[in-house]
Amino acid sequence: MGRNVHFELQGLRGNSWTVIEIFDDQNAAVRAAEKAFRTTTFTAVRVLRERFNPKDGQFHSFEVLYKGRKIRTSKFDVIKPTAGCEKVSDLYSTDGRQQIGELLRDSLDDWQLTPLEILYGYDNYLRLSQAGTTLQGAVQRAAVAQVKMTGEAVGERVKKLYSLIDEAAAALKALSEAGFPVIDEERFASLLAGLEGEKERGFLLCGAIAQDLARCRTGVEKLRRLLGLMRENHPAWASRIIDHYIAEILALRGVLDEVLGTRAAVERIFAIATLLGSGPGHGRAPTGLAARLARFMEARLLRQSRRVLERQLVEAIGQQRRWTQGSLIEEFRAIARVAQELGGNLQMEGAGAGLVQQLEERAARFLNSQTIASYLETCKTPAERLAALLDLEPFVLGADNKRMLANYMLPQLTGPDEAFWLKDEDSPARAMKRLADFQQRVLSSTLTRFTRDQLADRLDALCVILLEKAKIFDKLRASRMPPYDAVMRIFALIEQGLLTEGRAQQLAVEEARRYMRSKGFVQQLAALPDEQERKRRLDALQRKLARFVPAAETSAAEATNDEAGRG
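Above: the chain's sequence. Below: its structure in token form.
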């Protein structure tokens, strides 16, 4: 396959899909899926063919395998299976209006109308009923979704829905002809006071608002009008109605973007979070309509509107398009920034518990063979590739994603690339230091402990090969350097970062201990005529021992030091 295609093996646990592994070969992915399904760890598994389009930065998915229980969807599944509408009041309920919004989304967005305006504005209802087959299609899709719960025939459910719609339209027409109250912003409080004792006060206010909003051409104009009517001292029932209107207007296409202003993806996320009251620092302070919206949100008067904003935030996080125009590290840095800023600060009533998980899932989508290959394209050597991957690591969220990233690191140290690390044309010491430096980066990373150890051990193994190939200790012995000086030279190799932690440093310590056990070591120190110089050298040795020799091994070395000191 081309470099822009890969295959994701995903497993289903509960209601969430998890990326298990990524493959370049479809057959290998299918075989792994069969094996994963047999383990019964997942209720279902699937293989997705992901094609990356570098022009728009998006992935396009195609399912090539699915095993496990699956509910097949159809073109009618616009809304979730739900209990049917049995009476007119069901159309006006929050769930009923949500279904209307989902079924008529494109038309409502084009018309800049809300379900509330359709239900409480007779002229708006007429516009819908006369718009070709728009209403008919919505009724049919609703009927198909509802019979999954009621069990009745689709034809009967369609007739029942039309009967309810006709009944609601007739009642709305009668009330509209009688006349809804007229809203005057300066006298709005008096209007609410006059409706206080009315049995149908909620219906009358909803109708009055729908009638008032008919003068506005766009969703933003309607939002401005409603926020102008909102007051913190209004009766709770009136505030709830205005909140429902605002929530449905915020759900209209383009309204929130215009309120927030044109922003980059991450800044837009922070701007929505600011409206939700996530605290200072998340984007610039809101102004204009956004500031008024934030004020009422903070006063807890816009509960339904808050839920709409939460959904908008979740959608912004889950969008397919990249947030940034830069390299892969810029994308992961942006994801990590959102997690850091919002992960523990943003309290979301509806979807807050899964915010970090959604960010991890977003990161997983961009952690595949195509994006990694593109990211490493300018790197010429395994060292440059490993460095680039370690640069990326701090911004990769989630243990699963860390493990996936490590899967791209290990091949840089093995197979055909192993020979690169063992070249020592310039200097064995330089080659070993490079390995030791990379090992320190690995050990100080936030990779999982297993992958840290795996990479560190591999770097150590390469360092040992170089150490033995260069015959550093053999050459030291051949130089007949005094034992004390040889010991200090060996510890200097560790201190200068030329030896990796693990077997390489262990070999150095063992070589140092061999010198320290020799008679010449004690004799060299004992022969020093200056007692202060002898003490200085012993103190320096003791510091090295404390630093590089395990505690269990220092007792014998201390005994040697004591003997030299008495000399």
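Residues 154-178 form the longest helix (25 residues).
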